UniProtKB/TrEMBL annotation:
GO cellular component term, pick one: membrane
Membrane topology: Multi-pass membrane protein
Family listed: Belongs to the multi antimicrobial extrusion (MATE) (TC 2.A.66.1) family.
Residue intervals passing through the bilayer: 29-50, 62-81, 93-113, 118-135, 170-191, 211-232, 244-266, 312-336, 348-368
Protein name (record): Protein DETOXIFICATION
C-alpha cells in the first residue's frame, strides 16, 4: 500500500510542491498504521488459522508463537516503507544505503549473540528483526527531521487526515498490483509440493526461484529508479524527458539481464552444486536453466514497465493486467502442463513464463501508446486536487537539481 507514495511524492517533488511530500508521508503513516492494527489480528490468531487449513499442529503452534513476537515488526514496516519512498522521491538514496548498511551490521551481530550464543532460537530471531527494523526506522526519521530534507518536512500537519479516501484507493490499487505478482510465484512453489516427488520438486523450484529473486534485484532497482524519474518528470511537466527515461531504463535493464542469463547458461552444469548435493535436483535445475535464463530476461523488463506504471499512477490498470496474465493464463496453464501433461516443475515454470510474457507485452503496449503530454496534465491535476498549489514549478527552481530536459 505504501507504494502509492512513489506516484504522489515523485510527482509533487517534480512540480516543486515540496511541502506536500511530507503531508503525503504522514497520510501514508495514518493509513498503513491503521491497516497494521487490522493485520495484527492475523498474527495473533495465526496458530488457530494454520490448524484450520490443515497445517501440522506442532508447526502451527511454533509459527503462531513466532508471529505474535513479530507484531512490532509489522508496525515498523508500516513506518519504514513510506519513509523509503519519501526519500527516494527526492533521490536521497545514499542516506538510505548508509542507514541500511548500519542496520545490517547491527542485525548480524545481534543474530549471532541472541540466536547462536544465547540460544534464544525463533524468539531471538523475532527480537533481532524487531530491533533491526526499528533501528532503521528511528535513523530514517531522525534524518528526515534533521533539516536535510528542507521544505519536504515542516513537522506534523492536520492535512495528513484530509483526502484520505482518495489516498486509500490508490494505496489499495498499489497493494493489489504488487501482491498479485508476489503471490503468483509463491503459489507456484506451493503447487510444487503436491507433485509426485515433492521434495525434489520443491528443491528445484526453490533454487530457481532464489536465483530469479537475486537477478530480480536488478529489475527492482530499475523499477525504483524509473518510478521516481517518471513521476518527477511528469510532475515537472516534462513529458518528453519522461518518455526518454523509460527508453533508457528498458534498454539498460535488458542488457544487464542478457549478461546474467548468459552467465547462467555457461555455468548451468556447475552452479546447481552450490545449492544441493542431490544429483536429481542438480540435473533438473540444469535442465530448467534455459527457461530460467529466458525468464530473467523477461522479468527484468517487466519491473521497469511496472515502475513506469507506478510513476504515472496506473496501479489499478496494472492490477487488472496482472489478474488476467497471471491468474487467467499463467497459473492455469502451469497446472495443466505440470500435472495433467506430467511435465513436472518444467511445466509449472512454462506456465509461469507465459503469464509473464502476456503481462510484459500488455505493459509494453500500454507504455508505447501512452500520450505523455496527457499524463503530465493528469499529474498536475492530481497534485492540485490533493493539496498542492497547482504551480508547475520545476525541480531546478525549488531544489537546485540539474535534471536534463529535452522539452
Amino acid at each position: 500500500m505504501g507504494s502509492a507514495l512513489e506516484t504522489l511524492c515523485g510527482q509533487a517533488f517534480g512540480a516543486g510542491q515540496m511541502e506536500m511530500i511530507g503531508v503525503y508521508l504522514q497520510r501514508s503513516w495514518v493509513i498503513l498504521g491503521t491497516t497494521s492494527i487490522l493485520l495484527s489480528l492475523l498474527y495473533i490468531f495465526s496458530a488457530s488459522l494454520l490448524k484450520l487449513i490443515g497445517q501440522n499442529a506442532e508447526i502451527a503452534e511454533v509459527a503462531g508463537m513466532f508471529a505474535i513476537w513479530m507484531i512490532p515488526q509489522l508496525f515498523a514496516y508500516a513506518m519504514s516503507f513510506p519513509m523509503a519512498k519519501f526519500l527516494q522521491a527526492q533521490s536521497k538514496i545514499m542516506a538510505m544505503a548508509l542507514i541500511a548498511a548500519g542496520a545490517l551490521v547491527f542485525h548480524t551481530i545481534l543474530c549471532w549473540l541472541l540466536m547462536l550464543k544465547l540460544g534464544w532460537g525463533l524468539v531471538g530471531a523475532a527480537v533481532v528483526l524487531n530491533l533491526s527494523w526499528w533501528l532503521s526506522d528511528v535513523s530514517q526519521f531522525l534524518y528526515i527531521i534533521s533539516g536535510t530534507c528542507g521544505e519536504a518536512w515542516n513537522g506534523f500537519s492536520l492535512k495528513a487526515f484530509q483526502n484520505l479516501w482518495s489516498f486509500v484507493r490508490l494505496s489499495i490499487a498499489s497493494a493489489v498490483m504488487l501482491c498479485l505478482e508476489i503471490w503468483y510465484l509463491m503459489l507456484l512453489v506451493l503447487f510444487a509440493g503436491y507433485m509426485k516427488n515433492a521434495e525434489v520438486a520443491v528443491d528445484v523450484m526453490s533454487i530457481c526461484s532464489n536465483i530469479w529473486g537475486w537477478t530480480f534485484m536488478v529489475g527492482i532497482g530499475m523499477n525504483a529508479a524509473i518510478s521516481v524519474r517518471v513521476s518527477n518528470e511528469l510532475g515537472a511537466g516534462h513529458p518528453r524527458t519522461a518518455k526518454f527515461a523509460v527508453m533508457v531504463a528498458v534498454v539498460t535493464s535488458l542488457v544487464i539481464s542478457i549478461l546474467l542469463s548468459l552467465i547462467l547458461l555457461i555455468e548451468k552444469n556447475n552452479y546447481p552444486s552450490l545449492f544441493s548435493n542431490n544429483s536429481e535436483v542438480k540435473q533438473q535445475v540444469s535442465e530448467l536453466t534455459p527457461l530460467l535464463a529466458a525468464t530473467i530476461v523477461l522479468n527484468n523488463i517487466q519491473p521497469v514497465l511496472s515502475g513506469v506504471a507506478v510513476g504515472a499512477g496506473w496501479q489499478a490498470i496494472v492490477a487488472y493486467v496482472n489478474v488476467i496474465a497471471y491468474y487467467a493464463f499463467g497459473m492455469p496453464l502451469g497446472l495443466v502442463f505440470g500435472f495433467k501433461l506430467d511435465m513436472g516443475v518444467k511445466g509449472i515454470w512454462i506456465g509461469m513464463m507465459i503469464g509473464v510474457i502476456i503481462q510484459t507485452c500488455v505493459l509494453f503496449g500500454l507504455t508505447y501508446t501512452t500520450d505523455w503530454n496527457k499524463e503530465a496534465s493528469v499529474a498536475k491535476n492530481r497534485i492540485k486536487k490533493w493539496g498542492g498549489h497547482g504551480d508547475s514549478s520545476t525541480i531546478e527552481k525549488q531544489n537546485g537539481s540539474t535534471l536534463p530536459s529535452t522539452h
